[in-house]
Amino acid sequence: MDFSSILDGLAVTGAVTAIVGAGALKAAPGFARWATNKVATFFR
What string of DSSP letters covers 5-20? Predict the structure, then answer.
């Protein structure tokens, strides 16, 4: 049996997951600041 296509799919999935995770970590501080401001303006 040839499992190369399965292994290639796993490698691509891992790379995409890493890229999305890095983007989420980069966006998290800005999103947290935005969300805090939205909640604060709701209670004013």
Answer: HHHHHHHHHHHHHHHH
- How many H-runs (helices) and E-runs (strands) does the chain carry? 1, 0
pTM: 0.56
Please, what is the Cα angle at 18 between 16 and 23, to 5 degrees? 95
R_g over Cα of the chain: 19
**Backbone φ, ψ for residue 3 (5° rounding):** -100, 10
pLDDT tens for each residue of 12-32: 888 899 999 999 999 999 999
